[in-house]
């Protein structure tokens, strides 16, 4: 249980913001104390080296639209475990011990550092020497946007020996750690995880979603990949993201089982890599992407993307051959058969479009009347509201088509042709996604291969009148695999995305995003059940039931009975609000102050803004909402990151001016006209610093920075 002790002791230090005594002194001293204790108890088979790195540097990154990050004297605690005779190659394990303000940062990322300490302890006590070195990087500046990892991979002497890395992160508090990024390329790394991990949980779908930029987040994975040219594996806890980056992210909320599970997986993978022949020759195995996904957390299927491409095209070709054969039998009716198939294809697509538009209109209405996020604490509300609306709309469109367009057409024929229409849609989607190079196309393969096999096995039952019990049972068994996997995948997606909606900014209506996801999953899950609407005599009872649930839920949502947030001590789902006491001075190009003010700058981190706060704090209301200063950078607000486009709604409550005891001195040194109609400005910035010396004594000094800008 030593990892639990490590976690409790790190979080007991409190919030560990970069530059604070808690981060730069207390956390560092604690890590060093534990590492030295581990070193004393290590066996003679290993050699442990420890280094404290305090790098200074800068880099540009295209995250959030792009910006340049500068850092000075940040802290890295680096430990190298290697054989007694040394090692030429190494695998890196990375965590960060800093946190955002006002949180103990148990999951993000103290628990990962606790796991790494225990892995270091376990490996160092082994009598079996490793073939390669394992470097443990406890980095002290990740929340400032990946600075410490950059300082290490670009400046530390040990970085040159690294051939692969494992990055430990968090987007939630506990649960299973998801492999959501690998590579780039280097399929041997995925195979290492597949072989070694005891409790696998991985998805190439999560990788492609994350790398698309839909989720406004990034990890040290990017730094090692882009600046170190090193391949790796990115893991993160994803459960209960509601309290991620809040004061509720405490060690007692992370279950021991979660820590043990993560430790088992990471120890096994690190040990596998540190004894692998492929690590030393990783450049020989770097080419090719991998399709990978776990099956209910039991095991992982992984195969080269090029193999997946062949499988996908073969599956699509077989499906198109089957459809062509159906259309051409008998040949004299081929054109008529094709028209009927394309008609069913068009009606199915029309039903999907109508469903999406209708449900998004409901979501927009809910957002306009101020009831957004009613499902944030009660997820079942979203299913009762948007899920029932989507299902009812789909059924309604096909009921109308059956009643008016296919009035006297044989029911068995309609069931057959609409099954083929769904198969055609999935086959086209499979071909298109494969052509686009998306590894997630394997999902389409499941939705083509299994339904097609099912159809071929029970084709006689399709022609029998009515949907018999035998037919339904055999049909459900044939569809079991794709439906089970899709339900499992949808749980993972909603587990990740639902909490993100509480911190996605003031501009994106979260109800429309979630409603869109629900409609997509409803369309997918219903695609091979549409034919039952034509096989059964009536779906009125089902339609009335779904409509009733939808109407009742909508009335309850409009009444405000579902409060979005929760202060439940056991399972809080808080509203995120940032309040920052600021003093602003606006200068013109000649350095003259044209405007100055002081106030409490307020951000509501979700679409609801401050609407739920005003009744309790009347001073915070829409009369103090501040417009964007279009001519000033970042709308004239001191954003530490360029995220102002996500938070266009800001409030500014006038307050007394801040008078720091050691103000920063800012001085323009020179102004030089440059070619191409540009100006070079040189500044000097002086700040009073506080150095932390042994025994926690302090000494004050002044630091000067010289900045050169080209305008």
Description:
This protein is α+β, with helices and mostly antiparallel strands and 711 residues long. The protein has three domains: 3-288, 3-Layer(aba) Sandwich (Aminopeptidase); 314-498 and 516-559, no CATH class; 577-687, no CATH class. The chain is built from 19 helices and 18 strands. It has a seven-stranded mixed β-sheet with strand order 1-4-6-5-7-9-8, sandwiched between helices. The chain has a four-stranded antiparallel β-sheet with strand order 12-13-15-14, with no helix packed on it. Strand 12 and strand 13 (593-604) form a beta hairpin. Helix 11 runs antiparallel to helix 12 (379-405).
Shape: globular
Q: In the CATH classification, which architecture of the largest domain applies?
A: 3-Layer(aba) Sandwich
Tally of alpha and pi helices: 19
Count of β-strands: 18
Strand order of the largest sheet: 1-4-6-5-7-9-8
The oligomeric state is single chain
Biggest sheet statistics: 7 strands, mixed
Remind me, CATH topology of the largest domain? Aminopeptidase
Q: Given this structure, which CATH class of the largest domain is correct? A: Alpha Beta
- Percent strand: 15-25%
